[in-house]
């Protein structure tokens, strides 16, 4: 039976809290997350560390509310968005008759500090139904749309000549990323520092990186793949950036299907905004939408410059913008 929590203080992460955070996380979620994974996800994130905790004087963590910040290209500049993840309360504790409780108070403290344009202008996520109800109540989440993954079948065959399996980002990546991001009102700033951290430095997951060049040597696409996704015979496209007008753009489709088949996958899936150029283009070459359990939600802290309606139709998303891949 839960016991009443006493002598609780609320505040941002302090060095050394990570050991307690990992302990409570594994207890709450029934996992065996390693400290090295936590260090990578939070301490090494180039966008910073956004964590608030409820603790006792001994340092024992009772509750956490946190997010993974990402720098976004938005409104002609950059802004910080935060994906809300790993929020939890130790089930051994309760707040007695006090209202709000541990979790709600930790959430309010987090929002009070980070919920402003200069710190975290958008909070977003893919909550399950219970988390969505709670997030709507505590955070004021708004539902943008139900998530569907565009899906195609894996197909054995040779890799197109334009495709190369790479071990590192190409030297001309920055110029390509700038060209690609200019096409979208809102998108993640996928610079070298971010992509290296997000994929190439991940301590637990190995991603496959594909680059695509034409005969002149010009880079026209990049894909980041995760095979055996969620323990199924599925290859997830964590990132899929393509210059769609390029005459050899269709070779990217052939390469994705071939890479998935070579890894033992039966399907390939990608998350793109419904009815976007990418969505329509994939549909025109045989990909089809597949419903998921996820709903995409967000809250804005600058409704003038970043209204939710604009995000709904202007935010170019990828699976890599979320911690599910």
Keywords, separated by commas or semicolons:
Aminopeptidase; 14-stranded mixed sheet; two-stranded parallel ribbon; 325 residues; 28% helix; 9 helices; 2 domains; globular; alpha+beta
Description:
- The chain has 325 residues and is of the alpha+beta class.
- The chain folds into 2 domains: 3-120, Gcn5-related N-acetyltransferase (GNAT) (Aminopeptidase); 148-294, Aminopeptidase (3-Layer(aba) Sandwich), CATH 3.40.630.30.
- The protein has helices at residues 17-29, 35-43, 102-114, 129-138, 173-181, 192-200, 250-262, 277-284, 308-314; strands at 3-4, 9-12, 50-55, 61-74, 77-89, 93-94, 122-125, 142-153, 163-166, 186-188, 208-213, 219-226, 234-242, 267-270, 288-300, 315-316.
- Strands 2, 3, 4, 5, 7, 8, 9, 10, 11, 12, 13, 14, 15 and 16 form a 14-stranded mixed β-sheet that branches. The protein has a two-stranded parallel ribbon with strand order 1-6.
- A hairpin with a 5-residue loop joins strand 3 (50-55) and strand 4.
């Amino acid at each position: 039976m839960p016991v009443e929590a006493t002598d609780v203080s609320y505040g941002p992460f302090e060095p050394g809290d990570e050991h307690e955070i990992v302990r409570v996380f594994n207890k709450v979620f029934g996992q065996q997350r390693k400290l090295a994974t936590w260090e990578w996800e939070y301490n090494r994130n180039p966008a910073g560390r956004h964590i608030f905790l409820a603790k006792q004087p001994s340092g024992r963590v009772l509750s956490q509310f946190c997010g993974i910040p990402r720098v976004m290209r938005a409104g002609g500049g950059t802004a910080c968005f935060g994906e809300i993840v790993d929020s939890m309360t130790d089930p051994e504790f309760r707040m007695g008759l006090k209202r709000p409780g541990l979790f709600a108070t930790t959430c309010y403290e987090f929002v009070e500090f980070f919920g402003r344009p200069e710190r975290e202008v958008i909070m977003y996520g893919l909550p399950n139904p219970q988390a969505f109800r709670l997030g709507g109540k505590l955070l004021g989440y708004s539902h943008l749309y139900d998530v569907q993954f565009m899906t195609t079948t894996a197909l054995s065959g040779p890799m197109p000549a334009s495709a190369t399996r790479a071990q590192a980002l190409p030297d001309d990546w920055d110029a390509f990323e700038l060209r690609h991001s200019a096409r979208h009102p809102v998108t993640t700033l996928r610079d070298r520092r971010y992509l290296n951290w997000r994929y190439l430095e991940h301590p637990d997951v190995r991603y496959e990186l594909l680059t695509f060049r034409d005969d002149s040597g010009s880079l026209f696409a990049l894909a980041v793949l995760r095979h055996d996704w969620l323990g199924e015979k599925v290859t997830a496209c964590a990132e899929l950036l393509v210059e769609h007008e390029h005459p050899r753009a269709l070779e990217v489709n052939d390469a994705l299907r071939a890479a998935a088949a070579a890894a033992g996958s039966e399907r390939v899936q990608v998350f793109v905004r419904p009815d976007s150029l990418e969505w329509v283009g994939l549909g025109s070459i045989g990909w089809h939408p597949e419903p998921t359990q996820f709903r995409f939600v967000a809250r804005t802290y600058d409704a003038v410059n970043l209204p939710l309606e604009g995000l709904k139709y202007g935010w170019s998303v990828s699976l890599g913008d979320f911690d599910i891949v």
